[in-house]
Design a protein that fits this description.
α1 packs antiparallel against α2, α3 runs parallel beside α6 and α7 runs antiparallel to α8. By secondary structure, the chain is mainly α. It contains nine helices and no strands.
Amino acid sequence: MIMFISNIVSILLMTEFVLGNFANGLIALVNCNDWIKRPKISLADGILTALAFCRIVMLWAMLISWYVIVYNPTLYNSKVKIIVHVAWTVSNHFSNWLATSLSIFYLLKIANFSSLIFLHLKWRVKSVVLMMMLGTSLFLFFQVAVLSIDEAVQTNEYEGNTTQKTKLSDILHLLNVTLFTLTNFIPFTMSLTSFPLLIFSLCKHLRKMQLNGKGSQDPSTKVHIKVMQTVISFLFLFAIYILALILSVWNSNELQKEPVRMLYDVLLIMYPSIHSCILIWGNRKLTQAFMSFLWQPRCWLKERK
């Protein structure tokens, strides 16, 4: 029974992996192609392109980690583990913060508030995103350093060098887990904050339309609603991802049970795969490129006939 479930989950994971690589590859390819044609690229397209590349790295790191744990556990306590964990940590960090930057970008570009602080941020949205990414990179550097030391100490202990290292290992592991939780929870909280602000902005806009005797289906309202659909789907997937991450870290003993570990794997890989598909659906240029890709096999078959 466990082998049957393992095979089903393996198929599901590979499906999510292929879907995620296709979606992120399409985003990166379309935007890079536009970048080659035009010397300038919009901020939104730049964020989407960087996000796509980060998620491709993250998906491959997840797949390698899953393969090593399930099919070749002898490699799990070697340098391969440190390399994979560092690659995943870096790609996960930038993936989370780029997705958060995208939510904040939508908020600043679409919402309308009379606050001077909001207007100041709205006029300097590019600087806001840049400073956010640069500022959080300092935390990433510290996190990677702690992670590398923690993994190295655990590897030495596994090989038998446990003399006077137990306390240091416990402190490093606790610090690593705490940093890991904070660096994943903070971007989620910031993304979550943007959603009620978008709702408030939409309600304010609808009241204004009613007072002016205009319909509620104006272009601004449609943009508000579409962005809110994108943000709420992102928050739902992000919440599942963060919950699975935190549970997997704080309940590492439970990961020894294969069904629990497989459930975490499915939930974790679902976020970078499905959210990228939602981003394609919410972007007209990407949707057109996807539809064009779907038409290519049909046109090829017609030519063959």
